[in-house]
Amino acid sequence: MAGHTILVLNSPTARHLTLLDRLPPGCRIVAGDSAEAFVNATPEADILLVGAVSRELVEQVWSMAPRVQWVHSLWAGLETLLFPALIESDVSLTNGRGVFARSLGEFAIAGMLWFAKDIRRMRRQQRERRWEKFTITELHGASLGIIGHGSIGRAVASLANAFGMHVHGIGRRHTREEFENILQRSDYLLVGAPLTPDTRGMIGETELRMMQPESVLINLGRGPVIEEPALLHALRENWIRGAVLDVFDEEPLPEDHPLWALDNVLLSPHCSDNTATWLNDAMELFLENYTLFAQGEPLKNISDKKAGY
């Protein structure tokens, strides 16, 4: 197995990078979080391994590395990598798709249970030391619509099926009629779509008004897929019952953002996939893909650069 030069765009002191020691002895690893760190290695670079860095740095290093054959993102989202030069190139682009799905699936179920069992009311009554029985609902028999039936959607669907929910979903190719149907019939609506030019703002006021008053919207994809001003209006005016949000237009969410104060919102600081093992899992995926790359075999998680995921 021939060695390769791998540029790791990440803090060089990150603990998970020690897993790269398992690469073949002939591999040259250069890690850094500035373009200067790669100056002496870019002419021979074969692979870019991209962690938590800016799009500007990725573009800069890319422009310095004419021999790169493969770019891999530890993350599932590709927003920082979809710049024109890479999109139009023949270079393979892969990502961490699937690494986060199990945890995101559990968070989606937790959010649905939070509303079904009215846990916010339980907590409120506990604080007030008030014993007052009330009616709750079950997930069993409820309808779950999934927009974006990728690894996240499949993970949620698997768990939802175990609860006895009625699951239906749409992927990239769907008609407007199918889209509206899923909005109208879902008790819980999961948005797991990636952010692309086609999905940006795909759920706005018109779509939110189609949902049932008792519906709960769950966004685990990307914030801008849902028009935030329209969502705020829908939540304040009770067009829908509530929302479970892990992603937002602006992150970190500003302290004065109105979403913080809404009682019918369960929000996470984009950490529903931040498990203790995700970085190791993501690195294991890269190492597995490296073996395939070195053997000339097809890579896992090849992304459609023009489609955006």
From TrEMBL:
Claim: Transit peptide is one of the keywords in the record: no
UniProt keywords, alphabetically: NAD, Oxidoreductase
Gene Ontology molecular functions: NAD binding; oxidoreductase activity
Domain D-isomer specific 2-hydroxyacid dehydrogenase NAD-binding stretches: 110-272
NAD recorded as keyword: yes
Gene3D superfamilies xref list: NAD(P)-binding Rossmann-like Domain
InterPro entries according to UniProt: D-isomer_DH_NAD-bd, NAD(P)-bd_dom_sf
Protein name: D-2-hydroxyacid dehydrogenase
